[in-house]
């Protein structure tokens, strides 16, 4: 038997591509959660509301310092005990989204801190309402410069989707495992899985790097 | 009495950075023990001459030899390091190593390159620091010193290698005005008490006059005048030299 | 709560593998980061190119894919099966080493050009320039991002559960959850605390290293975490 069987590789490709679609769906939905929730965290922390601030800081520290896999297991086993039943897919989206929101919140925070004090003061001098200071002055300056960092986290999320196989999500690696368990050939499915990740994430990271260079120059 | 063999020979040296020609067809020699000062407007190529001698940049045409050994066409890094060892350089921005104390900066070359023992290198470092008037700063960090003190340490560091040639690249330009005189006095002293060959780029014309045997005026990558300081400063041949000196002295 | 002692002892059985994986992974990461980071700065194009392939290959694929590939595919190709823990450490090191290489390269490049020139003027050899002058200064720059990297690595040890390494996460998932289902929250609370504690130890050690390295430069440690560069 050859080490690499092209017919077999071609035959399993459709199933793997289908699983890749699932992987991308989870990445996109998870990114939406991470990008929005992270922004909420960052703005909330900037407000320095007494107790909320400490709780949020502790939450972010815990989520950032513990494995995503453990957090996914936690959602999978603990939520039903609270009467909440979510599909494995939904747990994946929430788990990835919340985990990465703690990262994006730090990115937003750095971006917000980089907006010069004078901008806040000028906005205050114009008596702009609080909400407008954020949406009209601060965030439009902060967000463009953090886009590359946010882009990097989206790529990281994409590469972390496979660990959701632990709760039964049929993403690329899990699809490969199911195929392999029927045919007892793992070389092709896992190698193709690796190539698929590389094909998507390498160009994406080149794009982010170009964005990075552009934002450094301006 | 015949003139001694020159120590440094520039022969038809050209240096260009892309389209930009910094030195063109430059030839001159420097005798052992001679003190040569390079003057000229910024961009005239003075610093480039020092950087070529220190092998920080490479010639694009022509050749440079020091003591008969080729600096511009050394066959390999090893041969190059042998020639390079005879040359020291003091930089405008000092370039002390912040990861080492003053002592560390001074013993680094002697122990790692010359193979001196720790004790010998330490003794040499202590002597040199006394010489530059910083004996008590031996265990300080470079960041704890003033600019003038850092530059004295940098001079001591270069001397610790016992160089035949010492290159001084605008060594007082980054210093506060009140610190300049001390560093220049130290250099003058070194000029009188050692037989080191000096190549010096400076804007301090008074120092150039006292210190140099020869002053070379550069403009547009060429030497346009090469004369003893008495003559060059009082009766320059070249009109460009006159306007340059006028501009810098009336400043 | 009456099950707490049992829970603690089961998790404690997983602790050695988590520790070995973390430490082994960090050691391999450091070696590969410095090795590949220096090679990325080589004057020879083919050396840089080959190293790039390693760095981009491991950064561009998923860590779980790498783990499954080394554990399930490699044995078929070379006819030799790695012990799960060893396969895990190899992947942790190879993966994070690829990220660390960029950290090392960036830190070395951040050392001012004047420092190279000062070292040349002292006739130090290329190796001496790097070891004695450039690396000590670059170290201060690389320690904060390496701290982040090591914490990522600690978190990644959990995926070793997927190839049957009985580390903390697998102990929780395979032993505790099926047997002490009513204590789900307690179990996860303890697991979270274990990882938090280990992360705190890593940060503490790295801060001490930072202080030491900055002290050698006569500076105070900045303590800054540049999250924009952390990825």
From TrEMBL, chain A:
It is a multi-pass membrane protein. Its main location: membrane. It comes from the Bacteria. Keywords: Amino-acid transport, Cell membrane, Membrane, Transmembrane, Transmembrane helix, Transport. Residues 20-208 form the ABC transmembrane type-1 domain. The keyword Cell membrane applies. The chain crosses the membrane at residues 16-44, 56-78, 84-103, 150-170, 190-208. It is found in: Cell membrane. It holds the Pfam family BPD_transp_1. Belongs to the binding-protein-dependent transport system permease family. This is Ectoine/hydroxyectoine ABC transporter permease subunit EhuD. The lineage of its organism: Bacteria, Bacillati, Actinomycetota, Actinomycetes, Pseudonocardiales.
TrEMBL record, chain B:
Keywords: Amino-acid transport, ATP-binding, Cell membrane, Membrane, Nucleotide-binding, Transport. It is a peripheral membrane protein. It comes from the Bacteria. PROSITE patterns: ABC_TRANSPORTER_1, ABC_TRANSPORTER_2. Residues 8-245 form the ABC transporter domain. This is Ectoine/hydroxyectoine ABC transporter ATP-binding protein EhuA. One of its GO terms (molecular function) is ATP binding. The gene is ehuA. Belongs to the ABC transporter superfamily. It is found in: Cell membrane. Its main location: membrane. Pfam families: ABC_tran. InterPro entries: AAA+_ATPase (IPR003593), ABC_ATPase_HisP-typ (IPR030679), ABC_transporter-like_ATP-bd (IPR003439), ABC_transporter-like_CS (IPR017871), MetN_ABC_transporter-like (IPR050086), P-loop_NTPase (IPR027417). The lineage of its organism: Bacteria, Bacillati, Actinomycetota, Actinomycetes, Pseudonocardiales. It comes from Pseudonocardia xishanensis.
UniProtKB/TrEMBL annotation, chain C:
PROSITE patterns: ABC_TM1. The keyword Ribosomal protein does not apply. Gene3D superfamilies: MetI-like. Keywords: Amino-acid transport, Cell membrane, Membrane, Transmembrane, Transmembrane helix, Transport. Residues 15-206 form the ABC transmembrane type-1 domain. Pfam families: BPD_transp_1. The chain crosses the membrane at residues 20-41, 68-92, 185-209. It is found in: Cell membrane. It is a multi-pass membrane protein. Belongs to the binding-protein-dependent transport system permease family. NCBIfam families: ectoine_ehuC, HEQRo_perm_3TM. PANTHER family: L-CYSTINE TRANSPORT SYSTEM PERMEASE PROTEIN TCYL, MEMBRANE COMPONENT OF AMINO ACID ABC TRANSPORTER. This is Ectoine/hydroxyectoine ABC transporter permease subunit EhuC. It comes from Pseudonocardia xishanensis.
């Amino acid at each position: 038997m050859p080490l690499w069987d092209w017919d077999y590789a071609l035959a399993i490709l459709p199933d793997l591509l289908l699983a890749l679609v699932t992987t991308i769906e989870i990445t996109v939905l998870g990114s939406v959660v991470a990008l929005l929730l992270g922004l909420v965290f960052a703005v909330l922390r900037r407000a320095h509301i007494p107790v909320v601030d400490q709780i949020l800081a502790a939450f972010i520290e815990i989520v950032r310092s513990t494995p995503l896999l453990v957090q996914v297991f936690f959602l999978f086993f603990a939520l039903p005990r609270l009467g909440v039943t979510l599909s494995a897919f939904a747990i994946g989206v929430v788990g990835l989204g919340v985990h990465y929101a703690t990262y994006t919140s730090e990115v937003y925070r750095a971006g917000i801190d980089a907006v010069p004090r004078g901008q806040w003061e000028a906005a205050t001098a114009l008596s702009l309402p609080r909400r407008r200071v954020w949406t009209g002055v601060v965030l439009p300056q902060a967000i463009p410069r953090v886009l590359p960092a946010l882009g990097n986290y989206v790529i990281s999320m994409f590469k972390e989707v496979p660990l959701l196989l632990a709760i039964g999500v049929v993403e690329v690696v899990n699809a490969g495992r199911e195929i392999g368990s029927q045919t007892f050939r793992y070389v092709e499915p896992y190698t193709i899985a690796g190539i698929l990740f590389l094909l998507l994430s390498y160009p994406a990271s080149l794009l982010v790097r170009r964005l990075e260079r552009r934002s450094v120059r301006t | 009495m015949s003139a001694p063999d020159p120590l440094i020979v520039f022969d038809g040296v050209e240096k260009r950075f892309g389209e930009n020609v910094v030195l063109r067809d430059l030839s001159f020699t420097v005798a052992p023990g001679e003190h040569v000062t390079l003057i000229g407007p910024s961009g005239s190529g003075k610093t480039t001459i020092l950087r070529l001698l220190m092998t920080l940049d490479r010639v694009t045409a022509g050749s440079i030899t020091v003591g008969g050994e080729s600096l511009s066409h050394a066959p390999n890094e090893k041969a190059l390091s042998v020639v390079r060892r005879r040359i020291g350089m003091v930089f405008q921005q000092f370039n002390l190593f912040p990861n080492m104390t003053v002592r560390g900066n001074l013993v680094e070359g002697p122990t790692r390159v010359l193979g001196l023992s720790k004790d010998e290198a330490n003794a040499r470092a202590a002597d040199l620091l006394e010489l530059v008037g910083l004996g008590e700063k031996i265990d300080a960090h470079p960041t704890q010193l003033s600019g003038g003190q850092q530059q004295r340490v940098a001079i001591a560091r270069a001397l610790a290698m016992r160089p035949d040639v010492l290159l001084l690249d605008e060594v007082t330009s980054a210093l506060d005005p009140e610190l300049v005189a001390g560093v220049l006095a130290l250099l003058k002293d070194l000029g009188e008490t050692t037989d080191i060959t000096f190549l010096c780029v400076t804007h301090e014309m008074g120092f150039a006059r006292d210190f140099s045997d020869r002053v070379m005026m550069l403009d547009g990558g060429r030497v346009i005048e090469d004369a003893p300081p008495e003559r060059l400063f009082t009766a320059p041949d070249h009109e460009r030299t006159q306007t340059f000196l006028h501009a810098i002295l009336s400043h | 709560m009456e099950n707490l002692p049992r829970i603690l002892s089961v998790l404690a059985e997983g602790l050695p593998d988590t520790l070995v994986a973390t430490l082994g992974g960090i050691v391999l990461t450091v070696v590969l980061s410095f090795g590949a980071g220096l090679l990325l700065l080589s004057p020879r194009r083919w050396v840089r190119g080959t190293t790039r392939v390693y760095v981009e290959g491991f950064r561009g694929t998923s860590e779980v894919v790498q783990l499954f590939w080394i554990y399930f595919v490699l044995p078929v190709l070379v006819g030799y099966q790695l012990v799960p823990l060893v396969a895990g450490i190899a992947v942790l090191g190879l993966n994070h080493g690829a990220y660390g290489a960029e950290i090392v390269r960036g830190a070395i490049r951040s050392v001012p050009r004047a420092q190279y020139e000062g070292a040349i003027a002292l006739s130090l050899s290329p190796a001496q320039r790097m070891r004695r002058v450039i690396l000590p200064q670059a170290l201060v720059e690389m320690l904060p991002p390496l701290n982040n990297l090591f914490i990522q690595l600690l978190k990644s040890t959990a995926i070793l559960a997927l190839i049957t390494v009985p580390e903390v996460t697998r102990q929780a998932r395979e032993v505790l959850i099926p047997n002490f289902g009513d204590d789900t929250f307690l179990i996860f609370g303890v697991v979270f605390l274990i990882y938090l504690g280990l992360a705190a130890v890593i940060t503490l050690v790295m801060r001490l290293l930072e202080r030491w390295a900055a002290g050698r430069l006569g500076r105070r440690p900045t303590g800054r975490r540049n999250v924009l560069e952390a990825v």
